[in-house]
Amino acid sequence: MRRVVVTGLGAVTPLGVGIRRTWSRLLDAHCGIVNVTHRDPRFADLPCQIAAVVPQGTRKDGCWTASEWLSKDAGFALFDERKMAKFAQYAMAASEEALEDAGWKPTDFEQREATGICLGSGIGNFDEVYDTVVAYEKGGYRKVSPLFVPKLLINLGAGHISMKYGFMGPNHSATTACTTGAHSIGDAARFIACGDADVMLAGGAESCIHPLAVGGFARARSLATSYNDAPEKAARPFDADREGFVMGEGAAMVVLEDLEHAKARGARIYAELRGYGCSGDAHHITAPKENGQGAFLSMKKALKNAGILPSAVDYVNAHATSTVVGDAAENAAIKTLLLGSGGRQRATEVNVSSTKGAVGHLLGGSGAIEAVFSILAVHEDVMPPTINLEKLADGFDCNYAPGQAQERRIDVALTNSFGFGGTNSSLCFSKHA
């Protein structure tokens, strides 16, 4: 099995467009959650009126205007915003940044044949579905756009990117709810490890901040509803007063590469992807088991795949969405895995944080952006903060970096992603030796 390393990073997030801007603002404890009632009057009828949205504005200010990223001048003549779902637009921009960062835009046929893409989304183009259903009900067949199906299919995100860059390797698209981004990166790594590709562009993307989508999660009692007038305080991972997550949008992409291939071309290596673990709760459509057994199994399998002991884990980027049951179950799972025989001796030695307080929950994109944060934590020896953590409940006695980032040696990091239906995935990154 070939070793897999990370050589490029890209992101479009509620903290800004570009991974450097996002990362610096994350470490400075900024928050990208805002009130969204100005976007659509129907939000005012919902119990949750907030979301983590990509900031609109000019590219030079680190914000998003589609035409600046997808125009002919930007080299995207065939991929304008009319033909692409917004999640695919975000993924395209994040991919461009990641490929530039990696210095990998091959023109040689054999190199493009050995480069693939694995991009997923949890929900995809929700707006297109809603708008087309409404148009069809009012006007019938002639109101259905010929682009309806191409803009609807989740795998078209990967398709657009492969066409843009001419990548002819594995063209793969995972859709596993909020575990999508992690599954995409883990699956891509296995394509490389098994010799199906030398380089893979991998990640997740989401953009479904629509009144019906928010309303659906609110009816499922999954969202924070008490902070419409103070949105920056709404996402509270691990906090005793947490009450639910905040929907977010954006994309994150990584360039994964066979180690020997990366070394041969002198690429910068951020980290090595050492382990990938997956599991199923086999329990409930939305809630984990209280003891976090599914989370425990995915982390355990990732460490087994990596050949790393629990005692070597320096940081866990938790899925922790701010739900009462979910955060408690994951916290229990982390402690079961990392404390005791083969692990740390005291809970205070277990370093855990959740970045969802800052960027919200990107659903299908969450596992990808949190993988990027974990890679940078390893690369720069810094643990990103858990913002809005003001009061710990019983059982929460690890080090959660409340309120501010912590500089510390991080040789090994785990990042967790869990989704509705009981699907779980963990990725293990380490410094490259």
From TrEMBL:
UniProt xrefs under CDD domains: KAS_I_II (cd00834)
InterPro entries per the UniProt record, alphabetical: 3-oxoacyl-ACP_synth-2 (IPR017568), Beta-ketoacyl_synthase (IPR000794), Ketoacyl_synth_AS (IPR018201), Ketoacyl_synth_C (IPR014031), Ketoacyl_synth_N (IPR014030), PKS_Beta-ketoAc_synthase_dom (IPR020841), Thiolase-like (IPR016039)
Domain of life: Eukaryota
Family annotation (PROSITE patterns): KS3_1 (PS00606), KS3_2 (PS52004)
UniProt xrefs under SUPFAM superfamilies: Thiolase-like
SMART domains named in the record: PKS_KS
Keyword Transferase applies: yes
One Gene Ontology MF term: 3-oxoacyl-[acyl-carrier-protein] synthase activity
GO cellular component: mitochondrion
GO terms (BP aspect): fatty acid biosynthetic process; secondary metabolite biosynthetic process
Active site (UniProt): 178
Gene3D superfamilies linked: 3.40.47.10
Biological or metabolic pathway of the protein: Lipid metabolism; fatty acid biosynthesis
Alphabetical UniProt keywords: Acyltransferase, Fatty acid biosynthesis, Fatty acid metabolism, Lipid biosynthesis, Lipid metabolism, Phosphopantetheine, Phosphoprotein, Transferase
Domain Ketosynthase family 3 (KS3): 1-431
Protein family membership: Belongs to the thiolase-like superfamily. Beta-ketoacyl-ACP synthases family.
Protein name (database record): 3-oxoacyl-[acyl-carrier-protein] synthase
The organism's taxonomic lineage, starting at the top: Eukaryota, Fungi, Dikarya, Ascomycota, Pezizomycotina
